[in-house]
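#structure-requests
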Amino acid sequence: MQRWQGPADVPDDWGRSVVTIGEFDGVHRGHQLIVARAREMAGRLGLPVVVVTFDPHPAEVVRPGSHPPLLCTARRRSQLLAGLGVDAICVIPFTLEFSRLGPDEFVRAVLVDRLHAAAVVVGENFRFGHKAAGDVALLAELGEKYEFTAEGVPLLTEHGVTISSSQIRALLADGDVAGAASELGRPHRVEGVVVRGHQRGRALGFPTANLETLPYTAIPADGIYAGWLVSLDIDGSQLARWPAAISVGTNPTFDGTDRTVEAYALDRDDLDLYGAHVAVDVTERLRPTVRFDSVAALVEQMHRDVAQARQVLAAT
């Protein structure tokens, strides 16, 4: 898959294409439906599919300080989109100047001049241009002017609830990682670099990988989870994967104040992951974080947590 940092990076000889636009945070099942429709149309026209997305998140530029927790890194987003059969991704640096483009200017700058869009596929709630003035109807009208078609794909709804990035963030904030996984189409992933913590886990017989997560990462509610610890190479591809018990929280038994994400690879005390880039895929919440009256009581519970995690993961 080709990756361009803005329209200026698009090759001069790039021909016509089918384009879809959005933040695509999480590349959840609703996003997957939009990409699938774009691929279907591209297959019929014999054209490549291009995803246009933005960095940083537009909310941070338009309303500084309002950056939402991100469901995946930019690199992970690209990997997921490539897995859906996207041919190219154009990441537009979202600036205050760019946010002031009117709908017509946006269409010409993003869709027409470099990508030569033959068709544009978006979610039915898509908005674009300064102050979100444009909608799908206006996009179709501009398409007639610039010779492309525009289609708004109905949002994916289950049990009366629309699948969306904001809905998934809310599920994670409640610790409902199973619900989030259902809407994502896979377990939620938290990435980071393994750093040295207080090394209490090793002293207690459960050595953990302590993740230094990236800013704005969507981290599930405090609690103990079953999941997977994954080591990644420099490109973000999987090197190894271990079943794990995962702790999110401040370690209240030890009067901790810093919120951490730690993962114990079940039955492994020989892993040296310091400095490695890793991920944890959280699949099920086992219990909330609680304060124990003694270290012995905590260790006893940790044994139960590990046994439960092993049982949960054996069934996946």
